[in-house]
Amino acid sequence: VIDINTLYQDSGCFTYDPGFTSTASCESKITYIDGDKGILLYRGYPIDQLAENCTFLETAYLLLYGELPKAEQYEGLKERITKHTMVHEQMNRFYTGFRRDAHPMAVMVGVVGALSAFYHDSIDIKDPRQREMASIRMIAKMPTIAAMAYKYSVGQPFVYPKNDLDYSANFLRMCFAVPCEEYQVDPVLARAMRRIFILHADHEQNASTSTVRLAGSSGANPFACISAGIACLWGPAHGGANEAALTMLEEIGSVDRIPEYIKRAKDKNDSFRLMGFGHRVYKNYDPRAKIMQKTCHEVLDAVGHHDDPILKVAMELERIALSDDYFVQKKLYPNIDFYSGITLKALGFPTDMFTVLFAIARTVGWIAQWMEMIEDPSQRIGRPRQLYTGAPERAYVPVEAR
Ligand code: ACO
């Protein structure tokens, strides 16, 4: 009979770390976070500088290739991306197969996973050219696929990409332009969309990125891996938190009700938490939240909602929480999701599209991380162990004797 305790002692070093709070699963040169200081760097560059100065494709180049692109490298990437923004016409039929009230994340998981059935020349992961091709295709097509999911859900015709627009403006147009009406992308809204994409592009080994790496470690094709990442991102504790934060702010409704919710958040017997507050890694202000707050103000001004009562609730809630001992001692600060829900709503997106926007941006980070893993010569299949707590070995008992 196997003695469980002996088994674990005999297997050499064994760590049990539920939730991977202190176990690194890989080496990476892509993103650095200092949670205590509230620092986030992509390839060494502070997130606020990138969000302020870069286009999304410049950021994508940086994450994928390790350096900011020179002018010709940037033009080259833009050209390759715009060449691939269309999806195969046959893919249109996928959408009509879904119910119109399907959650767009369900549509994304299906459609992105199905890309591997269309592009047989980009699924051999041993071939660097095929890996690159798959990456370009996914980054290029993700906004088109997402906008089509949105258009289908609201019963409007698909809008094809317009490749002389930049990545973010093109996406807004594919979502909000309607036939027979002139549509001009508001530059303030396009800048906001660009910043939102940059802020969400990578965040080291979060749950969805770890999912992409784990799926990819078996040699699965890149489209399947990104589809797995989208499925993981859909969870409310991950990509779904911005929707939850907005719902909470709307439920609070007015500043005089804030103390009631603060009290609930502090009550050990109440499962309620302030959504958009706290983070597993940041024990300081999430640097993305600061940029998101600024972007939120700009968007609300641009769409004429500067007196939005929900923004007032958010700002007052932040002020009260940041001067409350409970939140100070537990180092609970606003995270990126606190202001992003209000911003995305003001941009015109329904709540079920929020996580989809996150997925468009994070596709770049997922791909950069997947590439880094595949190109690492020491890469092995990911195979976590477990701490077995079940029955010890025992003999089979025939059914009549049980
Ligand atoms: N409101 C009230 N109390 C909180 C909150 C909150 N938002 N977050 C954490 N706490 C308290 C916990 O009750 C716990 O208290 P205790 O020590 O007395 O038991 C303590 O702070 C530590 O919390 P943990 O859950 O252990 O922290 P963890 O790192 O596991 O969780 C998480 C981080 C999930 C983000 C958490 O802060 C949370 O639930 N926040 C609200 C949801 C949210 O905003 N998620 C978005 C994350 S960002 C992203 O995914 C892009």
From TrEMBL:
<protein>
    <recommendedName>
        <fullName>Citrate synthase</fullName>
    </recommendedName>
</protein>
<comment type="pathway">
    <text>Carbohydrate metabolism; tricarboxylic acid cycle; isocitrate from oxaloacetate: step 1/2.</text>
</comment>
<dbReference type="GO" id="GO:0005737">
    <property type="term" value="C:cytoplasm"/>
</dbReference>
<dbReference type="InterPro" id="IPR002020">
    <property type="entry name" value="Citrate_synthase"/>
</dbReference>
<dbReference type="GO" id="GO:0006099">
    <property type="term" value="P:tricarboxylic acid cycle"/>
</dbReference>
<dbReference type="InterPro" id="IPR019810">
    <property type="entry name" value="Citrate_synthase_AS"/>
</dbReference>
<dbReference type="InterPro" id="IPR010953">
    <property type="entry name" value="Citrate_synthase_typ-I"/>
</dbReference>
<comment type="similarity">
    <text>Belongs to the citrate synthase family.</text>
</comment>
<dbReference type="InterPro" id="IPR016143">
    <property type="entry name" value="Citrate_synth-like_sm_a-sub"/>
</dbReference>
<keyword id="KW-0808">Transferase</keyword>
<dbReference type="InterPro" id="IPR024176">
    <property type="entry name" value="Citrate_synthase_bac-typ"/>
</dbReference>
<keyword id="KW-0816">Tricarboxylic acid cycle</keyword>
<dbReference type="GO" id="GO:0036440">
    <property type="term" value="F:citrate synthase activity"/>
</dbReference>
<feature type="active site">
    <location>
        <position position="337"/>
    </location>
</feature>
<dbReference type="InterPro" id="IPR036969">
    <property type="entry name" value="Citrate_synthase_sf"/>
</dbReference>
<dbReference type="InterPro" id="IPR016142">
    <property type="entry name" value="Citrate_synth-like_lrg_a-sub"/>
</dbReference>
<dbReference type="Pfam" id="PF00285">
    <property type="entry name" value="Citrate_synt"/>
</dbReference>
<feature type="active site">
    <location>
        <position position="279"/>
    </location>
</feature>
